[in-house]
Amino acid sequence: MGAAASLANSTAASAAAAERKPARFALARRTILTPVLLSLLLLAIALITVMTGSRPFNQTVIDVFVRVILVVGLYIFIGNSGVLSFGHIGFTCLGAYAAAWLTINPMMKRGSLPGLPEWLLATRLPYWQSAVLAALFAALAALIFGRVLMRLSGIAASIATFAMLAMINTVYSNWESVTGATSSVVGIPIVRTIWPYLIGAVVAVFIAWAHAISRSGLALRAARDEPTAAAASGVDIPRERLVAFVVSGAIMGLGGALMAHSIGVVTPDTFYLGLTFITLSMLVVGGMGSLSGGVVGVVLLSALIQGLRWLEAGVSLGESTFALPKGFRK
Amino acid sequence: MTYKMRIVATALASMSFAYPAMADDKTIVIGFATAESGFMEAYDKPAQEAAMIRIDEINAAGGLLGKQIKVVKADTKSDRAEGAKAGLSVLDQGADLVVVSCDYDFGSPAALAAEDAGRISFFLCAESVKAGIQGVGPHSFSASVLAAVQGATMAEWAFKEKGAKDFYRLLDTWTAYNKGICDGFDWMMPKLEAQGAKLVGDDTFKNEDASIAAQITRIKSLPKEPDAIMLCTMMPGAVSAIKQLRAAGINSMILNGSGVDGSYWLSAVPDLTNFYVPVQGSIYGDDPNPAVLKFNATYKEKTGADPSSQYVFPGYVMVEVWAKAVERAGTTDADAVVAELEKMKDEPTLFGPRTFTPELHHQNQTRYLIVETKAGKPGVVGNWTISEPVPMDALLK
Amino acid sequence: MLQILFDALSLGSLYALGALGIALIFGVMRLVNFAHGDVIAFCVFALLWPSTDAMAIVFAGQLPWYLLVPFVLLCGAGLSVLCEIIVFRRFRQANPATMMIASFALGFVIRYFLLMLFSSRPKSISLLPALSQPVEIFGARLPLLQLITIVTTMVILIGLTLFMRQTRFGLEMRAAAENFSMARMLGVRANRVIMGAFALSGALAGAIALIFGSQTGTLDIQMGASIMLMAFIATVIGGLGSLGGAVLAGFLLGAASVIMQVMLPIDARPFRDAFVYGAVILVLLFRPQGLIAARGTKERV
Amino acid sequence: MSLLALSDITIRYSRLTAVRDVSFSMDEGEILFITGPNGAGKSSLLRAIAGVTPVAGGRIDLAGHEITGQAPENIARLGFSMVPEGRDVFGSLTTEENLLVGTGMHARERGWRSRAADELEAVYATFPMLKERRHGQAGLLSGGQQQMLVIGRALMTNPRLVAIDEPSLGLAPNINDQVYERLIALRAQRQLTLLIVEQSSARAMMVGGRMILMRGGQIVLDGDARTLGNGEAIQAAYFGYEDH
After folding, report:
1. What is the DSSP string of D67-112?
2. C contacts of A276 (beta carbons < 8 Å)
3. What pLDDT sits at residue C139?
4. Shortest distance, CA C100 to any CA of chain B (angstroms)
5. Which residues of D53-84 are buried (b: 16+ CB within 10 A; e: fewer)?
6. Has residue A304 been placed in a domain?
7. At what angle do helices B80-92 and A55-74 cross, to 10 degrees?
């Protein structure tokens, strides 16, 4: 993970370096190793899984890949801006439901979600198209919410994102005709092969990397480390935050869509506090400031949880979080 | 190297092919993809115990199609993603019947996995119309009765037997189950209104609300206390709502779904009176059917405790109807068994008749016992079967 | 009208007490304690004997009220202090995000511990049944408990204010909440103040547990969560670290909830919380520092 | 034996070294000015003595006890009282409450309440203005009044050594004069040992006593303030002319 360190170091050289294009190419060359290595790691995991041929294990690894996408999405905003967001799982919820709207058999949709607009009721797309649209939908929502919320910073911003999550959850839990309220939305085609999830995770990793070395990403990290200096040198912090918020929102939406396809049912309460804190823990354990930290955090923690489950530790989640504090102290 | 490798590979392959075939020969496998830990465990386990009682009875009587029933289990950890894995896991172990969690939301991932593999799945006690064809597919069934039937039963019974005229509807928006009860009530109400009943008001609350004082104030501001309040909710919020209703001095009849059955919580509302619950069988030792009393005794012997609520019973019913269908089909082949199940009309079981049709793998009309709680003591006071089945469009609302 | 006022006050009381418990700890440690809700749940379950049967085996719940109340308060304080010693003490130097997540993990552990001992099935208990009687006041018929909730909350608030203003410990705590390292340089013992804050916060959790328990008659391992969320929001709107602000915002949230329940048409009522959270965002946008900004709250270095 | 002794103190903030191998000691009753430009490490040094900034190397002794790595509250109990930069008054507390915060640490001793009351009267005698505003909120006091308050607050702990970080910062010159007038009077009255950090050496030369000049985290001059008063040496050291 040496490349990760170099990526982090490059932050220091941030704003000035961002001004010159050739320097950016050099930066890309220097840091490309990180996403490539991470992708290879994920590919290796996928290959091992396919070789074992166990269906439950395959499902477990699909879960891990979905979490990788979610944590990478969180990293894009939290890692780069330093603002803790409790709201991102809201975008996952939006993505998952968007995927449901787009892929369910129109016959079933008419019965269970009659409030959808006519064109949506008639639409039925393959899952990968719906995943892309779900990501765009989540990004749009992130743009709208972000326009308002990115004016805030620090703990007020964190709370406001939480309020956003609660709003999304309340609306989706009660809008009977469009989201089916608290009851499960069913009929989402289930995708049980591992490759789409692998591709999703790899795409997320590369987008995170591209954002991190983009001018906006560099400026945002500079602002995170030296807010006053960055503001003085003309960095428009709310704007750069908004960019990260929208990009991460899109990734969270993608993760939500794939999550929907991995289980086949969606309910609003899947996308609430539990998932929020599990993904946040994974990001923090890996190290909030680095992409590879996030991905490795997910893989390690998932392996730990799975290990404990195999040991039949009984209180699965309780036990796994017990192990957290050791990893917490950076 | 190639020669030896090929032998090993062939041996391995033949073994893996041979394994399910062997399982088919000597035993029939029922796979439980249910919660053995976490939140759902408290709901799945009792019904699963009841299912085990029926399985033991069948095995003791010589088995099914002359084969012993073998049980395999995988824990869903009360988690949806884990539920899908548990479903796949019992399928890998050769399950002919996949039993899934009590609740539709938690059981459906495993049921969908079974549907994919073309096996029959049975929800232990889900009461949503989705637990079956509508939400999983043509091989999926539920062993319990639709929530809507409970709401409709209570409304009709209260009107016809207790002379209730003014109804009030209080819905907890937390779950689909709660809404299901009120959907049944809403379907029944216009029929009763034509005969002189009246809906005097309605309101909603949330299960986790610390206080429903505002909702109670709305009831109290009515010109006259309603005769009956249809309370569409479930634990734990139900106790809180009932307690607050009574503490505010509202003495109307309270009509409920089966979710509040059980005496374990009655201590919270001392001397509760005028309180009615529909149940499939009585756990209070006064069931009109002596076979139910015998079952309760067996259950106590096996688990060391009396059934805590009527949700124990569907587990028994599930194995009962499935085994009958297998006997009649003469095979465990999913499609043949489904066809037999769909032929069942008012099939008698220990806990009331059961009907399955190619449209609905669930009960939309069945006999319910009515349990009244009087001065803190619950007991059966009658039974009721709604005058017509709840139609599909009311269920899919 | 009077009825609505009482409804709003009694719901607001619960939120205010919860917010106070969170604000106390935030003040001295900059920790948003997500485990607070689980401490509340623990306090109620302390009344029962551990058992996974459906029927609750009442243990401490049978004590007469003058023993019961201190018992529950002590339970809360004890657990809270234990959390501080075992977990949070190790995170004093960590950043707020890490602490927040540690507290959430701790909450998980407490919840699963309860789950193991008591199972997830809600239990019922008749707590202080004498309080469930209705009473008549100014022409409004109220449950006695509602009245007692309001009165108790007022007594607790006044008592706490006196404690904070009149005692040396209260003085040290207020000083530490405002500028922790300066207070230490004046000889204020960090451990003592932090443990004091945790103990007070835990006792407040115990008080909520008692009120909540006797109001609902139900014990559920999730029961603290909804209050915790509202209390958390109240703390933020009130101005993190400002005790007065937390109380004020708690009452405001309670009032907002009740008024929306009364005013909204039935189809919009299920969306009540979305409006409440929307109002939270508005407040934050116009006053990011909260309604009553805690003066000079410096980040601990 | 000296009251305060620092040997080879090094302070680092992640990769940045703020103070490098600094040693000096102070005797009881002494007045010592530490001066130097911004970023010389003066405040870091003071905060390290108070125990709020960890040291990366070296040892600090106070009144015969090693205090390296001790908690601030324990260092305060040995008689060290700190007036940090920026006059950290507790803004939401009243003036009197501010003064009383530091008396709590003697609560185990008998008769601390009456002694605290005496101290309070003594401080009010020195700063009558504080008595006028005793029940007013401290955050509403003016800059000069706040400076008096924090000095008074430091005295309330009954200290042997008072360290003051930049008392002149942000004060009008005439107010600043007043502050120093009081400080000098207090020192005479109570036999206080004073450690004062200032950016400019002008004040040190006026008041007299010993002066240490720091630059780049190290001591460059140490001697009698008035002797060092020779402008050129000071200026050379202050701005680092010798480098050129």
Report:
1. -TT--HHHHHHTTEEEE-TT----TTSBHHHHHHHGGGGGTTSTTH
2. none
3. 67
4. 23
5. bebeebebbbeeeebbebebbbbbbbbbbbbb
6. no
7. 160
Domain boundaries, chain B: 2-145+292-342, 147-279+367-395
Structural domain containing residue D23: 4-243
d(CA D106, CA C188): 10
Interface of A to B at Cβ within 8 Å reads 54-56, 58-60, 63, 111-112, 173-174, 181-184, 186-187, 190, 192, 262-265, 267, 270, 309, 314-317
User: Residue A315: its chain C contacts at CB < 8 A?
Assistant: 112-113, 115-116
> Which residues does chain B have with pLDDT short of 50?
1-23
C-alpha C233/C-alpha C77 separation (Å) is 23
Query: For residue B203, what is the nearest residue in chain C, using CA coordinates?
Result: C266
| Amino acid A3: pLDDT | 42
Residue D174 exposure: Cα atoms within 13 Å on the Cβ side: 0
What secondary structure, in 3-state letters, does chain B show? CHHHHHHHHHHHHHHHHHHHHHHHHHEEEEEEEECCCCCCHHHHHHHHHHHHHHHHHHHHCCCECCEEEEEEEEECCCCHHHHHHHHHHHHHCCCCEEEECCCHHHHHHHHHHHHHCCCEEEECCCCCCHHHHHCCCCCEEECCECHHHHHHHHHHHHHHHHCCCEEEEEEECCCHHHHHHHHHHHHHHHHHHCCCCEEEEEEEECCCCCCCHHHHHHHHCCCCCCCEEEEECCCCHHHHHHHHHHHCCCCCEEECCHHHCCCCCHHHCCCCCCEEEEECCCCCCCCCCHHHHHHHHHHHHHHCCCCCCHHHHHHHHHHHHHHHHHHHHCCCCHHHHHHHHHCCCCECCCCCCECCCCCCCCECCCEEEEEEEECCEEEEEEEEECCCCCCHHHHCC
Q: Which amino acid is at A89?
A: I
**Which of B243, B266, B269 to mutate against chain C (most C CBs within 10 Å)?**
B243
Binary contact (A155, C105; C-beta < 8 A): no
Coil/strand/helix, residue C142: strand
Question: Could you tell me which chain C residue has the CA closest to the CA of B263?
Answer: C55
Minimal CA separation from A18 to chain C, in Å: 29
ipTM of the complex: 0.76
**Chain-chain contact of B396 with A263 (C-beta, under 8 angstroms):** no
pLDDT of C298 strictly over 50:
no
| Pairwise CB contact (< 8 Å): A59 & B396 | no
Residue A201, in any domain of the structure: yes
Is the Cβ–Cβ distance between D191 and D160 less than 8 Å?
Answer: no
Q: How far is C41 from chain D (nearest CA, A)?
A: 34
Which residue has better confidence, D240 or D224?
A: D224
Q: Could you tell me the pLDDT band of residue C52, with boundaries at 50, 70 and 90?
A: low
CB contact under 8 A, B105 and A56: no
Q: Do C102 and A148 touch (CB under 8 A)?
A: no
C273 at interface of A, judged by CB pairs closer than 8 A: yes
pLDDT in tens, A137-176: 999 999 999 998 888 887 778 888 988 999 999 999 888 8
Give the relative orientation of helices A127-149 and A88-103 as an angle to the nearest 10 degrees: 150
Same fold, B2-145+292-342 and B147-279+367-395: yes
| CATH H-level superfamily of B147-279+367-395 | Response regulator (3.40.50.2300)
A241 SS3 class: helix
Domain covering B2-145+292-342 assigned CATH 3.40.50.2300 in the classification: yes
How many structural domains is chain A composed of? Answer: 1
Q: Comparing C-alpha atoms, which of C137, C31, C2, C10 is closest to residue C90?
A: C31
Judging contact as 3 or more Cβ pairs under 8 Å, the answer for B and D is no
